[in-house]
Amino acid sequence: MKITVMTADEQIISLDVDPHESVENVKALLEVETSVPLQQQQLLYNGKEMKNIEKLSALGVKDEDLVMMISAAASSAPTNNLSFNPDGSAVNPGAFQQHIRSDSNLMAQLFQNDPELAQAVLGNDLNKLQDLLRERHRQKSDLRRQQEEELALLYADPFDVEAQKKIEAAIRQKGIDENWAAALEHNPEAFARVVMLYVDMEVNGFPLKAFVDSGAQSTIISKSCAERCGLLRLMDQRYKGIAQGVGQSEILGRVHVAPIKIGNIFYPCSFTVLDSPNMEFLFGLDMLRKHQCIIDLKDNVLRVGGGEVSVPFLQEKDIPSRFLDEERLSKQASSSGTPVTSGTTDRSNIVPTGGSRGDISQGPDFEAKVAKLVELGFGREAVIQALKLFEGNEEQAAGFLFGG
What we know:
Blueprint: E1 2-7, E2 12-16, H1 23-34, E3 41-45, E4 48-49, H2 56-59, E5 66-71, H3 72-75, H4 77-81, H5 93-102, H6 104-113, H7 115-122, H8 126-154, H9 161-186, E6 198-203, E7 206-212, E8 220-222, H10 223-228, E9 241-245, E10 247-262, E11 265-274, E12 281-283, H11 285-290, E13 294-296, E14 301-304, E15 309-312, H12 326-336, E16 350-352, H13 364-374, H14 380-389, H15 394-403
Parallel strand pairs: 1-5, 7-12, 8-11
Antiparallel strand pairs: 1-2, 3-4, 3-5, 6-7, 6-10, 8-12, 9-10, 9-16, 10-11, 13-14, 14-15
Protein name: DNA damage-inducible protein 1
Keywords: Aspartyl protease, Cytoplasm, Hydrolase, Protease, Protein transport, Transport
Organism: Quercus lobata
């Protein structure tokens, strides 16, 4: 016989069934037609629910009779509101958000397992919430696909070279993932951005934020900063050259001595003046050594003069935002060669631009100059470097050595 089934959304379905068919088998046929799981179906005949174990004939169902079908999903509005789209986003993000917010236990679990999603649920940006739900769905899909691929590799032909390469790659990636997870648990600070070391100083009476970099051999001041501090008039242009490192930057000259104030004490300091738009003042290794500085990371201070003065390193909030613009500094450093984080300016890479260099380290005159400067108490290697730097000029090399 034929019966007509009307669904909750007014879909009409005709079924050919045996009069002695059970209600459960009819639901199985409807599951194929409507994709509604058998367990979620509720069939009504003459307003009464039809039990799974009952027969159609026992219920009085006859040919061409009408049966109503209600699905549990359709009869429950909250459940429908909490369903998800194929991409993982919520069908009704507002209802989903309110449902999660109203369940304190669920919110506590969410804060523990996924704080970012928990914050989005508490926030007012539904678009952000939807994006996070899509991202979590994609991550789960990727993980499931990866697990399926790993399972397939277990049954791969052991003599298949490509399959063995994939197994090797999967094992290596698993080791990387485990290492990453261990780092997140035991060393989470490794994923945080490291703020460089800055201290408050005064150069020639003008306050500024000094970048402390023990990896940079020379102390550097930019042209604009030197002009602001009133030092540009003291710049010796005979020390022009090129600073070579990651790229290169033009050396405009050198200020042989000027006062800097660290804490409440003044110290003499020498500067290399660079045409550097991205670094105002860099306190390099030459002055760190000259003034017996200690970078104390335990107490987060710079100790000067063997400890007679201690100044704290600045917190991130106290450092001008332009100094923390890492992307901009990195781009400029790659083109200028100015040391930003790794101290790439080396005196051995400062090339004077005037005169002919040639090989000045040969001949008795050069050795005589070396011997004379060594007698003053400087190391032979330092003397040779200084003489090469100033093309054999003994007076300039001596001034350089005494200033360093």
